[in-house]
Amino acid sequence: MKRFLKALLDLLLPSFCLACEKPLGPTPDLLFCPDCLGMLHYITSPLCPCCGRVYCKATGGDHHCGPCLAKPNHFTRARALFLYEEPMKEVIHRFKYQGKTACLPSFARFAHNLPQLAELEGADWIVPVPLHPKRLRERGFNQALLLARAFFPKDSRVTASLLIRSRPTEPQTSFNGGARRTNLKNAFDVVKPHRLAGKKILLVDDVFTTGTTVNECARVLKKAGASEVMVLTLARVKEDY
């Protein structure tokens, strides 16, 4: 009976690749066809042990990048699962802006099987980067919260009640350099700071671009009493370094 119901479900609700939308076989473990799966760029060493910048052209082991040496971040380490390239870039775009959440089980499996999470163990709280209430109403969900729940299913440490976005901001893609920091100035606030005192925080977001957003969140969290802030994102932008 179970086999029959499974076959019936596959017939009624066939699976398609999240990236190229090719039909997949029955009940696939990952919603990516072999071609798209082969194009995903998993992040591995060598990288910057602080911000996670990937050294695509470098040889040797992990070492701190110039920007992290010149100006330390408020977070201790940031890790991402993939480079923000196609086809993952398109899948994230559909998830974030079109509400196509069928990707979440696949993201969860990727996170479970990759080593990055082992470097981020020991968090007392897992905190998604918040959206302003206006943006949340427009989108209908906070993608960072959905990712946190996918990466850490049924984990009571996941909470969206400690950090809020207290004023609306323009999309960071509209700015460069110092303008990104100005755009985020006084944009985040901590709720119930007593719950953060001496705690280790894992901050979750979808994409690490320049790190300005997560760094500002980390600054606010540490100012409120957090002892350490780490960062996990699904993807990060590749830099020529």
Outline the fold blueprint.
Layout: H1 2-12, H2 34-39, H3 66-70, E1 77-83, H4 88-98, H5 104-113, E2 125-128, H6 133-139, H7 143-151, E3 163-165, H8 178-184, E4 188-190, E5 200-208, H9 212-223, E6 228-236
Parallel strand pairs: 1-6, 2-5, 5-6
Antiparallel strand pairs: 3-4
Helix pairs in contact: 5-7
Average of pLDDT: 88
Please give the alpha-carbon distance between the first and last residues. 56 Å
**Helical content (DSSP H or I, runs of 4+):** 25-40%
Shape: globular
Oligomer: single chain
Brief account:
This protein is an alpha/beta fold and 241 residues long.
Question: What keyword list fits this structure?
Answer:
241 residues; alpha/beta; 6 strands; globular; Rossmann fold; two-stranded antiparallel ribbon; four-stranded parallel β-sheet
Describe the structure.
With 241 residues, the chain is of the alpha/beta class. The protein has one domain (32-236): 3-Layer(aba) Sandwich (Rossmann fold), CATH 3.40.50. It has nine helices and six strands. It has helices at residues 2-12, 34-39, 66-70, 88-98, 104-113, 133-139, 143-151, 178-184, 212-223; strands spanning 77-83, 125-128, 163-165, 188-190, 200-208, 228-236. The strands form two sheets. The protein has a four-stranded parallel β-sheet. Strands 3-4 form a two-stranded antiparallel sheet. Strand 5 (200-208), helix 9 and strand 6 form a beta-alpha-beta unit. It is globular and about 50 Å long. Residues 4-12 have low confidence and may be disordered.
